[in-house]
User: What shape does this take?
Amino acid sequence: MDDCLAASTGDAGIVDDAIALIEKSLDVRYDSGDVTAIERPHTTGWRVLPTLVTAQMSEGHSQITLDGGSPVAIAEGDALVVGAGVLHRIDLRSPRGISRWSHLDVRAFGGAVDALSLIEPPSRLSGATARRIGDLNQALAVLAKQPAGIAQAAQRKALGFEIFALIAAASPAVPAALD
Assistant: This one.
């Protein structure tokens, strides 16, 4: 992502400074999540959430439609990614499925900027990245059911940051976001 951003802006020094500011201010907060068995006719309906949504279909397949876009197939094993504030709909396409999902709030600059606005995340991830996001979502769901504590808070942050890092690694940067 960073090399792409530097090449598109033509000024690596400015990009380095911007990335340093983002790194100092980046924060993640776990909102909710679970491992959910679903059956047709399961749909989220059209919705807008204030958080990042990630969901990995560990069994079954679904489709996601983003505002103004065509439906994108989410095969068994794939993960979907929806940024905060994006109108979307998720529909189960197989008779049954298992979704490992989470809602995360990922922010920069003291909470003023949704960190996903700094990248162009794909709506679908596959392979090892998708499986890892599913594993992280499941770990977050298990952690959320444990008694609260400082160790659990640190683990939630670490897992959330790893999810964001996986998404950022698969996403081109948005050069205009640093203007």
